[in-house]
Amino acid sequence: MKDKDLEKLMTEDPAADEAAEEKEECAAEEKSEADELKEALAKAEEALAAEKDQHLRLMAEYQNYRNRTTEEKKKIYGDAKADCIKELLTVADTFDRAIEAECADETYKKGVEMTYSQLKKAFEKLGIEEISPLGEEFDPNLHNAIRQVEEGDFEENTVCEVYQKGYKLGDRLVRPAVVAVKA
Known about the structure:
Distance between the termini: 132 Å
Helix content: 55-70%
Oligomer: single chain
Number of strands: 6
Strand order of the largest sheet: 1-4-5
Radius of gyration: 45 Å
CATH class of the largest domain: Alpha Beta
CATH architecture of the largest domain: Alpha-Beta Complex
Shape: rod-shaped
Mean pLDDT: 86
Order of helices and strands: HHHEEEEEE
């Protein structure tokens, strides 16, 4: 048996052994390169997923910012409009008193009435609604009661006198009506 083993060893080609070894090394290197590429691909996919997630979060945050600023602009515009109207309400009150006052000059009185009519039209264009609650049930959200009246033709908890008109801007109360209520 020893002779056969020796013969076998002698008949084997050393170049073939080297080629086989090189083949094995190449296969191992290719396998390790493939593993490295797979690992790099997995890392790249993870990084891409993280970037997509960050992008989606950023877009959602930006949309929330836009919505929030739009609402803030609407609120600021409404506040500015209400503040401007509050200043003009004293002018409207003065016109109310001027129209109620007696005047000997009819053309002057007509001029005051026309000017007041223009102011009312401007209020309508701006969306200002007058609150004149005479005969209506008292609503503490819209009326400011400064006195209670015990006699009169009105039912209980009803506005029987209006001292100053109230005004609303849409659903927003700009100034409550100052009233007297039947007790």
